[in-house]
Write a structure and sequence with these properties.
By secondary structure, the protein is an alpha+beta fold. The chain contains 27 helices and 23 strands. It has four domains: 339 residues, Calcium-transporting ATPase, transmembrane domain, CATH 1.20.1110.10; 87 residues, Calcium-transporting ATPase, cytoplasmic transduction domain A, CATH 2.70.150; 158 residues, HAD superfamily/HAD-like (Rossmann fold); 135 residues, Calcium-transporting ATPase, cytoplasmic domain N. It has an eight-stranded mixed sheet with strand order 8-21-20-19-9-16-18-17, with helices on both faces. Strands 1, 2, 3, 4, 5, 6 and 7 form a seven-stranded antiparallel sheet that branches. 47% of the residues are buried.
């Protein structure tokens, strides 16, 4: 309930609402009851709509949070089930695997090569071994191995202090664009105060009635402040996020929508991103005549992989030995790029190591012929592992001396290109996105996959070891011209992301493993796979629910549509503001009273801003270009200023000409001026598609037509129904007045269309 009261309080007591009610109070004081009543009722209705819509947005965001909340694997009633972190209880038995974020404080019941990163608590990033009886802590990350853990503390009782539930209390977080809009609203509010002073001073010396001065001040204030723009952007972003989620692209932050529009550099992992999730074992090539090599390969994969895709692919085709006893496990980790196993089979001890050939070869040197074999496999895009054996059965696996083992076999795995990747890469590159591949795999394999995917310059590559030996200046130069980064460490991925960002490139990172977490967190836009490591999902901005890199273009298109809709609506708001200011300053120069009463401005705001905003929200336009939020103000004002200036001049000219020819008929003059201003506002709803060079869908065309008809019907009813006509002080203009107004309106519309054609920023 506290959340709802917060929403109500925030909407009812916003500075704009308070200011308008103060103005309404002043109108009551001077006995201008119609204006006071009308603007009060409208602001109350708008506020109630805002409250309802924000509550709806809250529910939308809650749905998104529920979709992305992390789940813990818990043993209950001898069954493994998944439950949210906030449902864990003291005494639960949880299962931890590589890549998991530990959800609670606990005691290790059994460990299988468990290694944990506790930098969240200690600041030290080194892997810490955890054995039976050791403590593990919430908010830390499993780097390697797996374990069963008894929960000792949850939530605020953990050492980490407060594992924040994903279902945290609702707090509206403004995106950078929304912050800019908020700043603009604040600036315009102060501008309205300055404007009020100018109006008061100018009319004071003209000896104009105080009530007229006051009404002009209030009218000017209502013209300048874009009271609904921030709400409109918030709703669009919230419901746009839900649409993205329906398209299997789940934003964890509203700012991710803007980020997709800004993206110009995208770093991708190879495995699980460019390639499919499915890995198949192609063959095992032995380097000796030892008979049990395949069973040793299967055994190492089974005991050290933690059930990852590579281990599953190997054990699916190779048989485990019948009788074995595991003595020591060194689980696979992305940092070491190898795993180790000491096992006893039929009274014979085997000390084994398996992993990336470059890393295992440090312990078991390869011959020239063996290296050639491996290179042939990687040149064909295959993933390769090297199995080595050691005679040393006493030294801990982590401390086996280099060059002390012998290579037993090479294992070739196939990880084919993901369906649709070629089209995805083509789309992104056509959108101006520079794609870099950052992988822990063999450089030859990565090059093969990158070339097959259609990534530009796939032959320009470097390894993590080569990067590590570069100076800072050389690193920067090499990073700028390199496409493929292979055999890189997690810290190097983060460093590369940091470098691209320092080059003023808006950088995204796509990954799925715990080794990608640092880079995902560092990137301007972190994109994680839903099936990836929980630690990676937790720090990302976007989660791809279908685990497909190919859904990113759809997300970009939808995000772009949302940004375009916000820009379209912003033009409506700023057209109102700019033309209102132009009109005000021109009549101040001419020494004329304001042609509109406050209720006229409020009436026009409903039909020329609020209704089109709802229409564009329901029927968003489609763009033929990418929207850049960084250029939001430039593009919006560039489109709005010339058009709004013409509107202001045309409305002022109409008002002045009518006043010259019909000085004694103020009611008819005001009526005609309101009609002209309304026509220009309606025209803008149709003109904006040409200004922004956007594609208007068939439903949007129909909605615009219905919008124009509805305004015509309302106008007709106002003139037919006497109480309404009297309320607004409307009087049927003379034919001659219509001719004058028609002439200025036609000239203004023609000028606007010519300017729209000449200044179209996307030609």
């Amino acid at each position: 309930m506290r959340d709802y009261f917060s929403i109500i309080r925030r909407n009812l007591f916003s500075p704009i609402v308070i200011a308008i009610f103060v103005l309404a109070g002043v109108l009551i004081y001077v006995h201008e009851y119609r204006d006071a009543w009308f603007i009060s009722v409208v602001i109350i209705i708008n506020t109630l709509i805002g409250i309802v819509q924000e509550i709806r947005a809250k529910h939308v965001l809650r749905k998104l949070e529920l979709m992305s909340q992390p789940l813990a694997h818990v043993v209950r009633n001898n069954q493994i089930i998944e439950i949210p972190y906030n449902k864990l209880q003291v005494g639960d038995e949880i299962i931890l695997q590589s890549g998991d974020e530990i959800p609670a404080d606990g005691k290790v019941l059994s460990s299988h090569g468990l290694e944990v990163n506790e930098s969240m608590l200690t600041g030290e990033s080194a892997a810490i071994d955890k054995a039976e009886g050791d403590k593990v802590f919430a908010a830390t990350t499993v780097l390697a191995g797996n374990a069963h853990v008894e929960v000792l503390a949850v939530g605020n009782d953990t050492k980490a202090g407060a594992i924040s539930s994903i279902l945290k209390r609702y707090k509206p977080e403004l995106t950078p664009l929304q912050k800019a809009i908020q700043h603009a609203i604040t600036s315009l509010t102060y501008g309205a105060i300055v404007l009020a002073g100018i109006i008061a001073l100018r009319y004071y010396f003209e000896d104009i009635d105080a009530v007229i001065i006051l009404k002009s001040i209030i009218t000017g204030a209502l013209t300048v402040v874009p009271e609904g723009l921030l709400l409109a952007s918030s709703l669009l972003l919230a419901f746009g996020s839900l649409k993205l989620a329906q398209a299997k692209v789940l934003p964890q932050k509203l700012s991710a929508i803007e980020a997709m529009a800004l993206l110009n550099t995208l770093c991708v992992d190879k495995t699980g991103t460019l390639t499919s999730d499915e890995i198949t074992l192609e063959k095992v090539i032995p380097f000796s005549k030892q008979s049990n090599i395949e069973s040793l390969v299967a055994l190492v994969a089974h005991e050290t992989s933690g059930g990852n895709a590579t281990g599953t692919a190997i054990t699916a085709k190779l048989q485990l030995p019948n009788n074995y006893q595991t003595q020591e496990v060194l689980a696979f980790s992305s940092a070491r790029k190898l795993s180790g196993l000491r096992v006893k089979i039929d009274d014979q001890t085997h000390t084994l190591m398996m992993g990336a050939p470059e890393f295992v070869a440090k312990f078991a040197p390869l011959t020239t012929s063996q290296r050639r074999q491996i290179n042939q496999l990687t040149d064909n895009g295959l993933r390769v592992l090297l199995l080595a054996e050691f005679d040393n059965h006493k030294t801990a696996l982590k401390h086996l001396p280099e060059q002390s083992g012998k290579p037993l076999a090479v294992i070739a795995l196939n990880n084919s290109l993901r369906d649709g990747v070629i089209d995805t890469v083509e789309f992104l590159q056509k959108q101006g996105v520079d794609i870099r591949v950052i992988s822990g795999d063999n450089p030859r394999t990565v090059q093969y996959i990158a070339e097959a995917a259609g990534i530009k310059n796939p032959t320009v590559s470097i390894t993590g070891d080569e990067l590590a030996n570069l100076s800072d200046s050389d690193f920067a130069q090499v990073a700028d011209r390199t496409t493929i980064f292979a055999r890189v460490q997690p810290e190097q991925k983060e460093r590369l992301i940091d470098h691209f960002e320092k080059r003023h490139k808006f950088t995204g990172m796509v990954g799925d493993g715990v080794n990608d977490a640092l880079a995902l967190k560092k990137a301007d836009l972190g994109v994680a796979m839903h099936a990836g490591a929980p630690a990676s999902r937790r720090v990302s901005d976007i989660i791809l629910l279908n685990n497909s890199f190919n859904s990113l273009p759809l997300g970009m298109k939808l995000g772009n549509k949302i940004m375009l809709t916000i820009e379209t609506i912003a033009i409506l708001f700023f057209h109102k503001i700019i033309y209102g200011v132009v009109l005000l300053f021109l009549i101040l120069i001419l020494g004329m009273p304001h042609p509109f009463a406050p209720r006229h401005i409020t009436f026009m705001n409903i039909f020329l801003v609020t209704m089109p905003t709802i229409m564009w929200t329901l029927f968003p336009p489609e763009s033929r270009h990418r929207i850049n939020p960084k250029k939001f103000w430039r593009d919006t004002l560039f489109s709005a200023i010339p058009i709004a200036t013409i509107t202001g001049i045309a409305v002022t000219l109409t008002y002045w000409l009518l006043a010259q020819f019909y000085p004694q008929n103020q009611a008819k003059i005001s009526t005609m001026t309101v009609i002209v201003a309304t026509i220009f506002g309606i025209h803008l709803v149709f003109l904006v598609s040409k200004l922004l060079k956007i594609k208007v869908t068939k439903p949007a065309h129909q909605a615009r037509l219905l919008y124009a008809i509805s305004i015509a019907v309302v106008a007709l009813l106002i003139f037919i129904i006497t109480p309404l006509r009297q309320f607004f002080d409307f009087t049927m203009p003379d034919i001659s007045m219509m001719l004058i107004a028609g002439m200025t309106t036609i000239l203004g519309i023609v000028a606007q269309r010519l300017i729209a054609k000449v200044t179209n920023r996307h030609d």
